[in-house]
Amino acid sequence: MSRIPLVITVTILFLFGCSNSETAKELELEIEKVNQSITETTSEISKYGEGSALYGLVNLRLSIYKQMRSMLEQKKTATRYFPRFSYSVDGKVYSPPEDLASKLSTLETELVSAKKEAEKAQDKATDSGGLIGALANMDAETKKLAVTQLSYQLIALRNGFPPYIELASDQGTKLQATPPATDSAGKTESKTTETQTNEKIEDCQIPGTMDFRKTTWGMSKSQVKATEVGPPDERDDVLSYSIEIAGMRCFLVYIFVEDKLVRAKYRFAAEHSNKNDYIEDYLDLKKTLEKKYGELKEDDVLWKDNLYRKDSSERGFAVSLGHLSYYSEWDTENTAILLFLTGENYTIKLGIEYSSKVLKNLEDKTREKEQASEL
């Protein structure tokens, strides 16, 4: 199952001749800086336990730096032959944005600001201890991740690459290379294709590092957007993407409070003429989640009205009326996970909700303030 697969094709036409030594030297300096960042981040990650939220944030930074280095090394190698680049994203030729200069200027400004924020946050974390220190460290690492993401986008746009961040993993993004070919003019043509495989629930999160997909709780909107492909539907404190997962169309929703990611969910959009099929979807998802998260914390089948309780053929219809609901819950160190099947007015809702345990109070307090303001 999959979102629409992302395919980035890089076509390089090698025109043999003198190398552009000036550009190569600039790229060497960039690569040297990135290598230094990789060394520092590798040292930093050793301070945190694998599977912790802080480890996840630092590991994500490290992955982005490594992708940044690969991108620059590819450009450096190709520059020796004065190549012409063309990129295809989902089969469409990629062109740098018309307002490239404006985007670069905006990114440079945002990067300067992000670096200052990260330095302040790190100073605060260094001076703090206990629970306050732990929260300060989380804030500092989140802000440093923002710096890394902005740096990646800036370098990508400067060098003519699509500014997408796709992290490679054994079960996610894969890199495939086709053998060099020769065109009619005798020029060597090399193609590299990056394809994002079909998504399964058990594969769409980096094991032991992320809280949900490629994100950790507390990330800002801009950080979350950098982990997904394509523009979202953005409204107030919500980002929404239309994807496919577990063989079904669904909406991927990220929910923020004070620009911090606190919840996320999959809202499935499959339509069935036989409403009992929604229950089958629920049970299939439940089996998958049990394999991934293990023993259930709660497993409830709730009847609010017993009208159709003795008729198994009408249970899906009972769900659509709000008479019957299904809930399954799991817990991880940082996250509460809820699989639900509910209904009302002949409409059925099937989804999986992921909630931050640490930031739940922040969301609750914000909701209470909003409710109080309405009175």
For the biggest β-sheet, the strand order reads 6-7-8-9-13-12-11-10
The tally of structural domains comes to 2
What gyration radius follows from the Cα positions, in whole Å?
24 Å
Number of distinct helices: 8
Give the helices and strands as they follow along the chain: EHHEEHHEEHEEEEHEHEEEH
Summarize the structure.
The chain is an alpha+beta fold and 375 residues long.
Key terms:
375 residues; alpha+beta; 2 domains; eight-stranded antiparallel sheet; 13 strands
What does it look like?
This protein is α+β, with helices and mostly antiparallel strands. The protein has helices at residues 21-45, 53-79, 100-126, 130-158, 221-225, 276-293, 315-321, 360-373, and strands at 7-14, 84-89, 92-94, 173-182, 188-196, 233-235, 238-245, 248-257, 260-268, 298-303, 324-331, 335-344, 347-356. The longest helix is centred in the middle third of the chain and has 29 residues, at 130-158.
